[in-house]
Every structure is written in C-alpha cells, then in structure tokens.
Design a protein that fits this description.
Layout: E1 2-11, H1 17-28, E2 31-36, E3 42-48, H2 50-60, E4 68-77, E5 85-87
Parallel strand pairs: 2-5
Antiparallel strand pairs: 1-3, 1-4, 2-3
Length: 89
C-alpha cells in the first residue's frame, strides 16, 4: 500500500473536481480525501495499491471536463490504512 499527498493547481475549484475525484477514487478502490485550499488549489491524499493510486494521479493531471490543471505535485507519505474516500469541506 502506498500513500501520496497531492496538490493540484490551475482552474480546479468550482468545476466539480472534488466530487469527481471522489467518484474516480471509489471506482478504483483508492482511499483518502480531497479538499479545496484557500489559495485556489486542491489538496488530496490517495492511499491504496500502486497501480490504482498511479491511475488516480494521472486523472488528477486532467481533472473533470471543466477543469484546467496547470500543475500536480505529489509527495510520498507513510500509509495510514485509510478506508473510504471523502470530500473534506
């Protein structure tokens, strides 16, 4: 199991990024959370198998149809054994 903390920049708020991320994560069996940051970026934690997390990272680089992603930073962290995927408000 791996864990990535992800920061996504660009036009990523107000475009259903968080909800779509939650749906994609659930389909892929990835645990974690996603939230908007005050600076306009989206922060997320993806935890699961290497391939599903890599697929979710690739999705984050594109985002939902109305998003315009200009950058994705991903940092390794120790896995915590999370379950489920939540939108944090």
């Amino acid at each position: 199991m791996i864990r990535k903390r992800v920061l996504v920049s660009g036009r990523v708020q107000g475009v259903f990024f968080r909800e779509t991320c939650r749906q994609v994560a659930q389909r892929r069996g990835v645990a974690g959370w996603v939230r908007n940051l005050p600076d306009g970026r989206v922060e997320a934690v993806f935890e699961g198998g290497e391939e599903p997390v890599a697929a979710l990272l690739a999705w984050a680089g594109e985002g939902p149809p109305d998003a315009h992603v200009s950058g994705v930073e991903a940092h390794d962290e120790p896995a915590e054994g999370l379950s489920g995927f939540n939108v944090v408000r």
